[in-house]
Amino acid sequence: MRENIAEFGQLHPEINGFSVSIGLSVYPEDAIDSQSLVLHADAALHKAKVDSYHEGICFYSEEMESKSLSRRAHYAQIKNAISHQRVIALYQPMVNPFTGDVEAVEALMRIRDEAGNTIPPVEFISLAEETRLIIPLGEQMIHLALAQLKEWHENELSIRLCLNISPVQFLDPHFVPFLLSAIEHYGVKPSMIELEVTESLMLQNLQQIIRDMMQFRQLGISISIDDFGTGYSCLSYLKELPVDVLKIDKAFINQISTENPDEALVQTIAQLAIGMSLQSVAEGVESRFQAQRLKDIGVSLLQGYYFSRPVPAKDIQKNYPL
Ligand code: C2E
Ligand code: CA
Ligand code: CA
């Protein structure tokens, strides 16, 4: 039986140590040539990793075929976008509710395919993270965004730039030197740069993360916790890490509606930020009602379709009155 099975296995870190995932395909049922068997085993391995139902071990099935083909197509699309520099940066304003001034923008990535279609992050970020292609993608994005920041400064526009950094990218040993050399290359002020990281990052090597964040903080770069409240529920990391901003997830902002307003969580997070002398940002603000309530609650900056969708840099205005 053993000779008939192509195996693909991978060790991957879990919260408490390591676990093993195994993908299997069987000769001759699944394929008759070794290359196809290995590709099928790889598809099964992917399923074993992402689907806890399989408890780390999964046999290939035909239904995986189409998924595996679409993964391959997406992978090729990402590789292509990297090699042809078809990464695009859009920007979404973050507005001070009292003045209407844009204090910061979030840079949001898109890629373009060969036909010129724009592909949104939901279609490529998780695969890019899994395959580590997020590193070259993220590097192109940082180049684009820092060049834009430089241009704004040359035009005397004082806007802080927020960059989304995936845990894969943040934990890569080249990330810190890469970012520092890019900052030097574009001659931008580190105090105008903010890194948005998610709580899932804190589940990794916390000592290394603290060291890197301290290094960024010493230069004046700020750190924002994205999607705050949706992930890790242990808040003690907030005291250990040099965090500057809590970004309240849009799922909580959604609950502020005229019909059935539920503001408890937003109020709690905004109070937590005030109590810890942090800034708060509300994302996914879609209505005037929400904007007004968030202003009254004391949220520092507002971001969402109510003010603007993510747009090319030239379409960012200086002011978006509430
Ligand atoms: P995110 O960091 O939570 O970004 C906010 C997402 O919410 C963006 O989606 C934005 O377009 C969308 N959004 C903003 N305002 C509203 C609103 O009022 N209503 C609704 N329904 N949505 C709103 P987008 O641009 O599709 O990005 C999705 C995710 O992809 C981001 O979520 C982020 O996790 C990831 N991403 C985007 N750009 C980058 C990047 O450069 N690097 C990395 N690592 N991840 C990125
Ligand atoms: Ca973000
Ligand atoms: Ca977010």
TrEMBL record:
SUPFAM superfamilies recorded for this chain? EAL domain-like
Q: Which UniProt keywords apply?
A: Hydrolase
Q: Which domain of life is it from?
A: Bacteria
Q: What class of enzyme is it?
A: hydrolase
The residues the entry assigns to the signal sequence are: none
MF terms per GO, please? cyclic-guanylate-specific phosphodiesterase activity
InterPro entries cross-referenced by the UniProt entry: Cyclic-di-GMP_PDE-like, EAL_dom, EAL_sf, GGDEF_dom, Rev_trsase/Diguanyl_cyclase
Name of the protein in question: GGDEF domain-containing phosphodiesterase
Lineage of producing organism: Bacteria, Pseudomonadati, Pseudomonadota, Gammaproteobacteria, Vibrionales
Q: Which gene encodes it?
A: cph2_10
